[in-house]
Design brief:
The protein is an alpha/beta fold. 43% of the residues lie in helices and 17% in strands.
């Protein structure tokens, strides 16, 4: 039989509101009274109803996690890491995918989160002023992954440093014709609108530092898919002077590029070197040299910052510097290896 809060109040000789406040540890109740209420609850086997507790506190104990796509490895990793933190802290997760322009417009045009969540963790979406205002009007405390906004906690990756490190690795191996395949951003893209231009800027900076002239023909922007990476690599191989190496702005693009090279009878890294970006779970399987930008760490840090903000802490900004993971997809260009024999 379910024990009511009224029964606990009668046993302890206090009001129902005092029982609620005592069991939640609200200040202003003597320790003697709190102990009497706790003892009565234990004796009767009383378990507080989550819904009643939420009504009493005005808090849902739920966090909305908003992502552009659920099917991409990056978003799955961020969600999983954030979810572990939120679950540990006693929060439920309300997962929302905004995979089309229409879904995104509808989500921000209506009070979808009002009364349903205490905060929102927004991943890889560059929010406009009206979108931010919508979330704040719904009482949402915010944490952002991959973007920034005044008053909101955020986690950012130092992508310019990452792009520069990837290109420098290839330059240090002796490559001079280095291509870059970047990520297309926008409301309908797989990135959901966060501009990934910093990786390209870092690549360009590394070329300039090495005195290598820029070549717009070696820069391509595509969707973040294996097929798009394969098509971009095929286009690069048809250039009058093809590159000998590639910086790919994601590992998925790099996987596609590797498939095209293999189909063309070219060896990685004997004929062509590739650096990816993500440290995807399959990168080690295919021996891909890549930039690790702490994908799970991004989710963990953002969730921890959001939980702290929900408890009254000021907004926090975290930054992650990518690190190079060298595997078997990079080597000196063939001309240098031939010259050393």
């Amino acid at each position: 039989m379910t024990v009511s809060v009224q029964a606990v109040a009668d046993r302890a000789g206090v009001s129902i509101s005092t029982v609620s406040r005592a069991l939640r540890g609200v200040p202003g109740i003597s320790e003697t009274t709190c102990k009497r209420v706790r003892d009565a609850a234990v004796e009767l086997g009383y378990v507080a109803s989550p819904s009643a507790s939420r009504l009493a506190t005005g808090r849902t104990r739920t966090v909305a996690v908003v992502v552009p796509l659920l099917t991409k490895w990056f978003f799955a990793e961020v969600i999983a890491a954030a979810g572990r933190v939120l679950s540990r802290e006693g929060y439920d997760v309300l997962l929302t995918e905004l995979s089309t322009v229409e879904l995104r417009a509808g989500f921000f045009a209506s009070p979808r989160l009002h009364g349903r969540s205490d905060g929102a963790l927004v991943v890889a979406l560059q929010l406009g002023s009206e979108e931010l205002a919508s979330l704040k009007a719904q009482g949402q405390v915010l944490a952002l992954v991959g973007s920034e906004s005044a008053g909101a906690s955020s986690v950012q990756v130092e992508d310019r440093i990452g792009g520069r490190a990837a290109a420098r690795h290839l330059i240090n191996l002796g490559h001079e014709r280095i291509a870059f395949v970047g990520l297309r951003a926008g409301p309908g893209s797989t990135l959901g609108g966060v501009p990934p231009a910093e990786r390209l800027l870092g690549y360009r900076e590394a070329l300039a530092e090495a005195g290598l002239p820029p070549d717009p023909g070696l820069e391509h922007v595509v969707e973040n898919t294996v097929d798009a990476g394969a098509a971009a690599m095929a286009a690069l191989l048809t250039a009058e002077e093809p590159p000998t190496a590639l910086v790919a702005a994601s590992d998925e693009i790099a996987f596609g590029a590797m498939a095209t090279l293999r189909g063309a009878g070219l060896s990685v890294p004997d004929d062509f070197s590739i650096v990816g970006y993500d440290n995807h779970e399959l990168a080690g399987v295919v021996g891909l040299t890549t930039m690790d930008h702490g994908v799970a760490e991004q989710g963990r840090l953002a969730a921890e910052a959001l939980v702290a903000a929900l408890a009254g802490a000021p907004a926090a900004v975290g930054r992650i510097e990518p690190s190079l993971v060298v595997r078997g997809s990079t080597a000196p260009p063939r001309r240098l290896r031939a010259g050393s024999r």
